[in-house]
Amino acid sequence: MHKSNIRTRCGATLAAALLAVSLGAAAKPSDEWRLECSGGANSDGTIVLRLLPVGGAPLEASIAIEDGTGENAVAKAIARALQEQLPEDGYHVERDDGEDVLIKKRGGAADFDIEIVSNTVKGVHINPDRE
Fold first, then answer.
1. Which residues does 91 contact at the CB level (< 8 Å), separation at least 6?
2. CA–CA distance, 23 with 58 (Å, rounded to integer)
3. Which of 30, 33, 49, 50 has a CA positioned 20 to 30 A from the CA of residue 125?
4. C-alpha of 24 from chain center
């Protein structure tokens, strides 16, 4: 292999590695998250959320939403499902302002990231914000 090809390949590999590291560094776990729910359900569907505790195993929660469910009722369904599916000793879940869901770590639990794995409910949007 020609030296210039080796340099190009090494440069591309290094750039990919730096991008992966920078993307990982962009994650900023928090001790509390707000899920802002907007819009009512225009279809049946499922919302899947994943909590990623620092140094711990990911936790997933699945929430079934029926067509016609309003914005506040969507938040209520998410809060109820998280209360049922997350370890009670690790997380406190509550609603705020009707359409928001707060997820807070308890006691010695690790800070965590949260991601929307999937949302098949038409018309419902969820925006996670660090508190």
1. 51, 82, 103, 104, 105, 106, 109
2. 18
3. 30
4. 15
CATH of the domain at 89: 2.60.40.4390
Contacts by residues 18-27 (CB-CB < 8 Å, ≥ 24 positions apart): 27/52, 27/113
Do 22 and 55 have their domain in common?
A: no
In a 10 Å sphere around its CB, with 0-12 CB exposed, 13-18 middle and 19+ buried, how is residue 121 labelled? buried
Pair 23, 86 in one domain: no
This prediction's pTM: 0.79
**Digit-coded pLDDT (tens) for 64-122:** 999 999 999 999 999 999 999 999 999 999 999 999 999 999 988 999 999 999 999 99
Residues 6+ apart with CB under 8 A from 92: 102, 103, 104, 105, 106
Query: Which residues constitute the domain of residue 24?
Result: 1-28
- Domain shared by 76 and 107, yes or no: yes
